[in-house]
Write a structure and sequence with these properties.
157 residues, alpha+beta, Alpha-Beta Plaits, four-stranded antiparallel sheet, two-stranded antiparallel sheet, 6 strands, 25% strand
């Protein structure tokens, strides 16, 4: 197995052996919830009942995805004030850069889903987009949907 193939293991391969693992014909998609910068600054100022409704929606949404078999993983991310960009110096030591006040949007969290079609991924993203905000109104957040690559192009393996 080539060095690149070890690094960019195909989805569905065992990390230890590289052996193929039986999997469905479904495709994985990442659904990325982007939040305007002001969203992070104002989220904590929402009325308590609105925060509770939002969190309850997210828990219920994740539970429904688990029950349908579409859920792979989901994570919310810390404030962009904690974000750093890291690059390797010539000697390999990390060089950090950040915070980026000029950024207009930040990744707030994501889901990875395993579905049969991009249409299903889009429908799930629309449900996530409708999470309640202040006053219970749907937030209609932008959710970026991208298929998760199953591995490098054949010419690299």
């Amino acid at each position: 197995m080539s060095r690149l193939r070890r690094v960019l293991r195909l989805t569905g391969e065992s990390a230890q052996t590289g052996a193929k693992i039986e999997r469905s014909k479904n495709m994985k998609y990442i659904l990325m919830m982007n939040c305007p910068r002001t969203g992070y600054e104002t989220f904590g100022a929402w009325p308590k009942k609105d925060l509770q409704a939002h969190v309850a929606f997210m828990h219920g949404f994740n539970k429904a995805l688990r029950e349908s078999g579409e859920f792979v993983s989901a994570e919310g991310l810390a404030s962009p004030l904690e974000a750093k960009v890291v690059r390797a110096a010539k000697d390999g030591t990390p060089i950090t850069d950040g915070i980026f006040p000029e950024a207009k949007e930040f990744l707030a969290g994501y889901w990875i889903v395993d579905v049969e079609s991009n249409e299903q991924a889009y429908a799930i993203a629309a449900r996530a987009s409708a999470a309640p905000g202040p006053g219970g109104s749907a937030m209609n957040m932008a959710i970026e949907v991208r298929q998760v690559m199953s591995g490098p192009p054949e010419e690299f393996v």
